[in-house]
Amino acid sequence: MSLQETGILAQIRALLPGGESLVDDCGALPPTPAGHRLLVTTDLMESGQHFRLDWHPPDLLARKLLAVNLSDLDASGARPFGYTLTLALGPEVDAPWLTTFLAGLAAGSREADVQVLGGDTVGRPAGLGLGLTAFGFAARWLRRDGLRPGDRIFVDQRPGASLRGLRKLQAGQRWDPARPDADLEAHLAPRPRLGLGLRLAEIPEIHACLDLSDGLSRDLRNLAEASGLSIVLEPALDEDARRGGEDYARCFGTSLPQAELESRLGLPLLPVGTVMPRGAAPLLAYDGDSLLPLPDLSFDHFGSS
Ligand SMILES: Nc1ncnc2c1ncn2[C@@H]1O[C@H](COP(=O)(O)OP(=O)(O)O)[C@@H](O)[C@H]1O
Ligand SMILES: Cc1ncc(C[n+]2csc(CCOP(=O)(O)OP(=O)(O)O)c2C)c(N)n1
Ligand SMILES: [Mg+2]
C-alpha cells in the first residue's frame, strides 16, 4: 500500500495528541509563564546514519525520535509541552509502517504529556529523514557552562549499553520482544530518566548539565570547553563507557558529595570525572601515572566508516 500526502496528514491529525489543531499555516506556542524561559531543541534522524529500517521497529523508532529531543530539554531543566514533526519518506515505507510509527509517537507523547504543534511531510527518492523539534519551559536554564573547579561529574545511567546494542545489531542479532535484551533495548528504545533534569535544576549546587548523546569522550569535552575548564576522567571507566554514544544520561557537575545527592534524589549515581582549572586539554585521562588528553572516540557523522 503506497503513501499519499493527504492520507498521511489525516492519520497524523487522528492519532497524535494535539493533531486536531493542525489546520492552519502556522501553529502557536503557548505564552511563556512568568519567570520561565522558552527552550527549543531539534534532532534529525536519518536512515543509514542513525537507524536502519530493517533493525528498528517503527513504533520504537518514533519513541526514540521523541525521547532524544525530550532528553535535551530535560537536561536543560525544561518541562516539555510540544513539538513539530518533519517527515521525509522514501518508497521503502508503506502505510502500515507509518501507522505503527505514529501509534508509537502517540503513546510516547501521552506518556510525556506533549502535543504535536505542526510539521511538514514530503516524499524523497530513497531513505528516510525524521526531524523533531521540541519546546519546553525552564524556570532555571541548566546550561553547560557553569562548572566550577573541584566539581565532580556524575551520570544517572552507566554509559555503553547502547553501543553494545549497536554492535549486536551489526553482528546480526535482532529485536525480539519475546527475548528481551538490555543492550538492544538501550539502543532501539532508550529511556532517558526524564524529569531528573528538572529536579537537578532546582538544586543550586548543580552547576552544569548536558544530555549525554555523543558519548563521554566527546560530551565531557563539550562540558569542559563550555565552562573554560578541564575534566579528568574517572579512571575506573571501561572502554565501552568511555566511548558510549546514544546513552541519553543526564551528565552534570556538582559541588555536593555523592552520598548526599544520592539520598536527595533517591537514586544511585556514577562518578565520571572531576573538574580542575584549565590544563593541557579540556578532557584528560590517567594513563598509568601520567595525565594525557583523551582522544574523541565518538561516532563521526562525516567519517568514512
Ligand atoms: N545546523 C545547525 N544550525 C544551527 N545550530 C546548530 C546546527 N547544528 C547544531 N547546532 C547547535 O549547536 C549546538 C550543539 O549541537 P549538537 O552537537 O548537535 O548538540 P547535542 O549533541 O547536544 O545534540 C546546539 O545548540 C545546536 O542547536
Ligand atoms: C545505522 C547506525 N549507525 C550508527 C549509529 C551510531 N550513531 C549514530 S548518531 C550517533 C551519535 C548521536 O547522534 P547525533 O546526531 O550526534 O545526536 P545529537 O548529539 O545531535 O543529539 C551514534 C552513536 C546508529 N545509531 N545507527
Ligand atoms: Mg551531536
TrEMBL record:
Pathway: Cofactor biosynthesis; thiamine diphosphate biosynthesis; thiamine diphosphate from thiamine phosphate: step 1/1. ATP binds at residues 119-120, 144, 213. Mg(2+) 2 binds at residues 43, 72. Pfam families: AIRS (PF00586). Keywords: ATP-binding, Kinase, Magnesium, Metal-binding, Nucleotide-binding, Thiamine biosynthesis, Transferase. Its EC number is 2.7.4.16. It comes from the Bacteria. One of its GO terms (molecular function) is kinase activity. It is an enzyme of class 2 (transferase). Mg(2+) 3 binds at residues 25, 72, 211. Mg(2+) 4 binds at residues 25, 41, 72. Mg(2+) 5 binds at residue 214. Mg(2+) 1 binds at residues 42-43, 120. Substrate binds at residues 50, 246, 299. PANTHER family: THIAMINE-MONOPHOSPHATE KINASE. Belongs to the thiamine-monophosphate kinase family. Catalyzes the ATP-dependent phosphorylation of thiamine-monophosphate (TMP) to form thiamine-pyrophosphate (TPP), the active form of vitamin B1. This is Thiamine-monophosphate kinase. It comes from Geothrix oryzae. The gene is thiL.
